[in-house]
């Protein structure tokens, strides 16, 4: 039986009303406006944020799209607009509980194909641990987090403690760039997505490495960065060179950046077979997972097409990238990492 095709990076925005959005905040609250013709608009208070289609909130439409694209399973994570990291922690915790319940409901009719990831109030790492533990007990297969909370990056001691907690309960972590740096210089043309997202992810990965945070996080943590790890793979040589030649770069990390490549994975959302070839060369074929960013228009329109077109991959490596790696990454904590897919590619 062939490996299933498993997409580790897809988003959902449950059909939450404006009143429900106010669980989180009294202004700029996230909610979903759905018109009579079936079109949708992600909203931030009164402001229109992004037009969307039914695959974002309708599981039947999503499953039909997956069938048409040959995708066996998706990890389903909230849209970053929903994170709520600027809110009061107690309200954010209540919001996360509501969102997590809705994500479970979204996935309930196809539990072998739609794999729910929870979100947490990361601005309060203690609360985040509590919410993550409850979500894992309720059936969530992982946790989806932003790559920073204000000026606190993933190497922040509180967030590092949260990552260690996830390692301890066997909950995989999917890290997504958001709230991009330099927004005042990236007006128009979706430059925050085109330039800011890769920079955010590069910053987070290097921060974990050079701060020594990876030395404090259990090796059992399953951590995956979206969007191909941003600019990290292309700039790894630059970072290694700096570590070897400047003591201020290596002051807190006993290993050069390339010494930590076995501590995390990345998705395949780079959209160019040549870029994916570099990514596989840097990370290894066991640490690149199919990610499409479904259902957004900047995602991969033909899931897995970049992997299938990537030069130099043998059949075994291509199968790992298309599904085997994501299947292992998302395996329930009580199951071995080499979990065997059931008939039809289910997880």
Provide a descriptive summary of the structure in words.
The protein is of the alpha/beta class. The chain has one domain: Metal-dependent hydrolases (TIM Barrel), CATH 3.20.20. 39% of the residues lie in helices and 16% in strands. The protein has twelve helices and 13 strands. The protein has helices spanning 18-21, 59-69, 89-107, 125-138, 157-169, 191-210, 213-216, 232-245, 247-250, 273-283, 305-309, 315-329; strands at 6-12, 30-34, 40-44, 47-52, 73-78, 114-118, 142-146, 148-149, 152-153, 173-176, 223-225, 265-267, 288-289. The strands form three sheets. An eight-stranded parallel beta sheet has the order 1-5-6-7-10-11-12-13. The protein has a three-stranded antiparallel beta sheet with strand order 2-3-4. A hairpin with a 5-residue loop joins strand 2 and strand 3 (40-44). Residues 335-346 have low confidence and may be disordered.
């Amino acid at each position: 039986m062939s490996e299933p095709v498993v997409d580790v990076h897809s988003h959902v925005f449950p059909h939450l009303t404006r009143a429900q959005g106010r669980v989180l905040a009294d202004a700029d609250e996230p909610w979903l406006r759905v018109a009579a013709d079936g079109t949708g608009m992600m909203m931030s208070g009164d402001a229109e944020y992004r037009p969307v289609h039914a695959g974002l909130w309708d599981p039947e439409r999503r499953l039909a799209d997956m069938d048409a694209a040959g995708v066996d399973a998706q990890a389903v994570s909230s849209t970053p607009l929903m994170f709520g990291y600027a809110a009061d922690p107690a309200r954010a915790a209540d919001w996360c509980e509501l969102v997590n319940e809705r994500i479970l409901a979204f996935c309930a009719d196809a539990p072998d194909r739609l794999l729910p990831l929870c979100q947490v109030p990361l601005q309060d790492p203690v609360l985040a641990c509590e919410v993550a533990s409850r979500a894992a007990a309720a059936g969530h297969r992982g946790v989806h987090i932003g790559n920073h909370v204000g000026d606190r990056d993933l190497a922040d001691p509180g967030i590092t403690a949260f990552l260690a907690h996830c390692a301890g309960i066997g909950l995989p972590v999917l890290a997504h760039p958001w709230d991009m740096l330099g927004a005042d210089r990236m007006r128009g043309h979706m430059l925050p997505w085109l330039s800011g997202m890769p920079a955010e992810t590069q910053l987070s990965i290097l921060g974990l490495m050079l701060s020594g945070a990876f030395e404090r996080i259990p090796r059992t943590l399953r951590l995956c960065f979206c969007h191909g790890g941003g600019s990290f793979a292309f700039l790894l040589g630059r970072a290694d060179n700096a570590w070897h030649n400047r003591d201020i770069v290596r002051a807190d990390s006993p290993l050069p950046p390339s010494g930590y490549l076995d501590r995390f994975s990345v998705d395949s959302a780079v959209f160019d077979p040549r870029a994916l070839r570099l990514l596989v060369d840097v990370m290894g074929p066991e640490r690149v997972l199919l990610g499409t960013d479904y259902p957004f228009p900047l995602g991969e329109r033909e899931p897995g097409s970049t992997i299938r077109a990537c030069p130099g991959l043998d059949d075994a490596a291509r199968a790992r990238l298309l599904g085997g790696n994501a299947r292992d990454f998302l395996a329930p904590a009580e199951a071995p990492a080499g979990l065997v897919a059931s008939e039809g590619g289910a997880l």
